[in-house]
Amino acid sequence: MSAHDDVHPRGKRELAKAHNRAEILAAARQVFTEMGYGAASIRDIIRRTTLAAGTFYNYFPDKEAIFRTLVEESTRQVRQRVRAARERAGTLAEFVGDGYRAFFQFVADDRVAFELMRRNDAAIRSLLGEPALMAGAEELLEDLQTAVDRGVLAGFDLDYMAGAMYGVAFEVAVRMVDRQPVDVEGATRFASTLFLAAIEAFRAVVPPADTGRHRPSPATRGPKVER
């Protein structure tokens, strides 16, 4: 059989694999949002699909793997929105406020992200140290450093600040999704006011010569998690 003859069946197999994976993910979204991570089982997920039980394990080894995939997909989307908002910012207030608003608005608009966070925040907390999720904090750190290089920021530990801003975004979002109605502007106002005030406080007490470049070298940040 020539390579040309083999293209069609291989293409059909790849399409079938993509369809099966998408079906499993869609079923898992429903199960995790309705039951929560702790109560949900692989059997519950399989029951929401048209697939045989053994097919699940061709794509995901366990429940944690599929949950991590769902969280990472939402995280990747929100990171793109937040970073785009920060890149458009023309002032410090826009850098902080627009970034938070983009994050909170995504959580409010995306029902998958909303329900995963509302019902499964404890499970998500256990994944916050995963490289894919920590990428958001790393990108924030890079953007803060860019602001320092432009002379917009100075006078505080960038590594601590990035960690604090990242953590507050998650914690405020967890509380925001439990409120009715969901108050995106209120969450944005609280988080941005908190950090703008903190930045001003650091400016008042730290000498101007301090550039704010306090990011530890990789050797001092501890071992990286290999995936």
User: Which whole number gives the mean pLDDT?
Assistant: 81
Low-confidence stretches: 208-227
The secondary-structure element order is: HHHHHHHHH
Share of helix among residues? over 70%
Given helix and strand content, the structural type is: mainly alpha
Query: What is the β-strand count?
Result: 0
How many structurally independent domains? 2
What is the 3D form? elongated
CATH architecture field of the largest domain: Orthogonal Bundle
How many angstroms separate the termini? 38 Å
Q: Name the CATH superfamily classification of the largest domain.
A: Tetracycline Repressor, domain 2
- Tally of individual helices: 9
Report the major sheet.
Answer: none
What is the CATH first-level class name of the largest domain? Mainly Alpha
Strand content: under 5%
Q: What would you report as the Rg, rounded to the nearest angstrom?
A: 21 Å
CATH fold call of the largest domain = Tetracycline Repressor, domain 2
